[in-house]
Amino acid sequence: MFVEVRRYGNAHKFVAEVEAISHACDLALLTVDDPAFFHGTAALELGLLSRLGDRVSVCGYPIGGDRISITEGIVSRIELVRYAQSQRRLLAVQLDAAINSGNSGGPVIQDGRLAGTAFQALEDAETIGYMVAPTVVEHFLRDVARGQQAGFPELGVLTQVLESRAHRRSLGLGQRRGGVLVTCVDHGGSAAGVLEPGYVLIEVNFIELANDGTVPLREGELIDHAYLVSSHHVGESLPVRFLRASTLHSATLTLRALAAEGPGATHEARPRYYVVGGLVFVPLTRRYLETWGDDWERDAPRALVAVLEEGGRTAHREEPVVLHKVLADRVKQGYHELEGLLVREVGGVAVRSLGHLVECVEAGRGPFIRFRAGSGHEVVLDRAESRGRHEALLGKFGVPFDRSLGAGEAEDRAADSTRLGQRGRTACDRRTCRHDVVDEDDPASREAMPTPRDRERLPHVLRPLLATELELRTTGADT
Predict the structure, then answer these.
(1) Is the same domain home to 160 and 288?
(2) 252 & 278 share domain
């Protein structure tokens, strides 16, 4: 990544290096090796968390000009906010100062100290913007100082408020005791093996939860108990107390980060997918559901949204897998309209992950490949026919290779069925990528290039790979 920075009032640009990135809290740390960049400057001290009514100044370069812009505003709310970059709920400070495109990353100053960094605004409201809280900035910097970028831990549970008196009595809660009901536990999360659905979470880090799940932030201020978890670092211990069958228990959790793509996102990773017989399989992630648009929570298939909201992982499933699209071809006649189906089984075996689905398909020896969806739908492929049409189908849609499984899964479980040995073509390491060298004088070679119509029909998860393929075909460069 190439980055240039420039000080206000100085036309000279300096080359900067990205030392660390946290997509979870929308922050990055840059370093500049040239000492001239820092000449005559003084560092801003990181301030304390602002209070309601405090006045702050927001600096940045919003749209509408090239010069620095400074706006003033009032702190109007402090709470956990879903960060747009990662959808993680972290502490943020709401401001009534104008925060527009270009302000993101700009410092928010209060009494000569850094009160936070501007990072997002509500599109459907006027002058409602947010800054990353200084406690979140400090958390990020501590991670960097420790040489880790593990991010922010989560309990990995879903909870229900217990404001109903009858519900509380049924669980053995007294009138003065707070707590929330655990309804779902993410397998592999921080609370896995300790908390179970039906338990009542009473305390986190020795602080008692109210019936609505809030805890004191400061005198007169309440905040969701998730703040107590995210303010810790991954790997640290967190004491909790809970009710099980009306009996009080204590335990200490080792905090873990949110599963990478689980429902979060790893922004630098290439899309993960697997193509067999024209069926395109992908892991179910938030980024996948976002392809339905800004209102994906409403427009995406309800069954998929529900699985994601419940955490996705279970003791028998590392990640949900979806039949994303069906590439049009005679091998899949009758299945072309299928899309967005949650895959439960392959050949009668429950699917644990995308990599496990690949193993099940390629380890099968029967004449058919049978997929069963959570809805009960079945998709059956003729194994021999699918194998025979495999290369032609990839070529038709310009798909550079039939899988991208990510680190740890991309080793040669099975030979990548690349078109080796064909006239005018070469191949890279099967575990990483494959590209074609096109002979411009060969009509057959030119016909192998995907047409614009083919590219329009290509599923979105494969388009970044097609762009890479086309660049390689044009340049003929080795990788």
Answers:
(1) no
(2) no
Q: Which two tokens stand for residue 329?
A: 């071809």
Nearest one of 312, 289, 258, 325 to 90, comparing CA atoms: 258
Q: Which long-range contacts (CB under 8 A, 24 or more apart) does 13-16 make?
A: none
The pLDDT of residue 68 is: 86
User: What does the pLDDT average to over 408-428?
Assistant: 33
* 191 and 158 together in one domain: yes
Which residue among 129, 145, 161 closes a domain?
A: 145
Are 248 and 328 in a shared domain? no
The SS3 call for residue 369 is: strand
Residue 263 lies in a domain: no
What does the pLDDT read at residue 335?
86
pLDDT level of residue 58 (50, 70, 90 thresholds):
very high
Can you tell me the distance from the alpha carbon of 248 to that of 200, in angstroms, rounded to the nearest whole number?
9
Least confident of 148-162, 311-325, 326-340, 465-479: 465-479
330/212 Cα distance (integer angstroms):
55
Positions of E strands within 205-340: 207-208, 214-218, 221-224, 237-244, 247-254, 256-257, 273-276, 279-283, 321-326
Co-location of 185 and 243 in the same domain: yes
Q: Is the CB of residue 404 less than 8 Å from the CB of residue 434?
A: no
Q: What's the confidence (pLDDT) of residue 463?
A: 54
pLDDT reported for residue 455 = 47
In a shared domain, residues 393 and 451: yes
Would 303 be classed as within a structural domain?
Answer: yes
Is pLDDT at 42 greater than 70 in this prediction?
yes
CATH code of the domain in which 82 resides? 2.40.10.10
SS3 content of the chain, % helix, strand, coil (to 5): 20, 30, 50
Domain that holds residue 27: 3-145
Contact 264, 258 (CB under 8 A): yes
CATH value at residue 390: 3.20.190.20
Q: 406: phi > 0 → left, psi -120 to 50 → alpha, else beta; which?
A: left
Say if residue 305 is in the same domain as residue 448: yes
C-beta of residue 200 within 8 angstroms of C-beta of residue 162: yes
pTM: 0.74
pLDDT of residue 117: 95
CB 34 within 8 A of CB 274: no
**Overall domain count for the chain:** 3
Report pLDDT digits (tens) over 257-299: 876 444 444 566 678 999 998 899 999 988 888 888 878 888 9
Of 140, 159, 165, residue with least CA distance to 151:
140
Nearest to 431 by CA among 453, 414, 455: 414
| DSSP structural state of residue 210 | P
59 and 76 co-located in one domain: yes
The last residue of one of the domains, among 126, 145, 164, is 145
